[in-house]
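We keep the chain:
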Amino acid sequence: MGTDAKPLSPASPEAGYEEIVARPGRVGMACGVSLFSKFNRMNPALTPSTPDDLADAVRSAPRVIVVGAGTKPRLAAVGDGFVRVSTARLSGIVEYEPSEFTFTALAGTPVRTIVAALAERGQYLPFDPLLAGAGATLGGTVAAGLSGPGRFRFGGLRDFILGVRFVDGDGRLLRMGGKVVKNAAGFDLPKFFVGSLGRFGALAEITFKVFPRPAATRTLRLPAGDAGTMTGILTAAANSRWELDALDGSPADGAVFARLAGPAAAFDGLAGEIFTRWPGTTLASAEAEELWQSVREFGWAHPAGTLVKVVLTPAQVPEFAAVVKSVAGARAWLGAGGNVGYISLPAVAALPRLVWPALTLRGEAPLWPGARPQFEIMRAVKAALDPQNRFPNLDD
């Protein structure tokens, strides 16, 4: 771990940030999350524009919470007493080495900016970052720990992060990890920031590895009339030799969607094998792109109301589907071969009891509505990086 700490100095607008009224992003506003919106109206946010200014902003108050674009508003809905630090002006790609397949960007950089820059060089983030179109930031994506359908084949966001530069609870600007893929020195501490919800520190700069974009893709629709059939397809397909690029399920449509990626010449043979086992259809290119865009942007979900991520195993899919069905108007989606589920409720509906680990992304439900495992190592990391408890508690 390196340090770029500066002598403590009082925070001020002249230090490089200004006070603005924080506003949630498009998704946050559409959700009508009163807790988040009310707090924003009452509490101006500091907006640092450099990592050093971020350190000043963190040191300026006893309790702070870092916010991004507001695309997952429940994650930042904390109680009174917190000063909000926005990464809106902490934006830009710092380094991009296409030949090394790595980039470094400031935490407030919109993910769609990074996606566009990578696409120009035929590269991409294989885990399919969620809510990029809605304006999600790189830091917010890391803090939320969300990965899209592409995580099925190549792993989630956690598998692509190489290094972070962040401000800890003492206001020190520190560095963990590195900027190269082959870096085996010390513990892989940057991964602790994935899904940390801003509880360990304020992300300033993040380094990722990237992959070459596949030459072509093809999406297959496999009918699954009930949850048991869907579980069978998800389990068998995940354990096959086909190396599917994505494997998602829609309980409402009664279908599993399998995405192939690679040389187009290989698709006919692979699709033939799959259809021999489960008769289905091939989606037209435009239809497939619309489908996966809807998955990445939660287009299938209610535009208002509660949205919850649930950790599952494929064997638990039937029980999960039954819980969703028990709530009038509830919608669901299954990702990562049935290892993650999402529940979307109408604005007036209450979240049912969940027996699985879960995280509320938007809505008025508890942040952790399901069974939440308590890992002592997370508390140890929190104590080491934020001994003054400047950032929200792990249970907030």
In short: Residues 1-213 form a domain with the Uridine Diphospho-n-acetylenolpyruvylglucosamine Reductase; domain 3 fold (CATH 3.30.465.10). The chain has eleven helices and 20 strands.
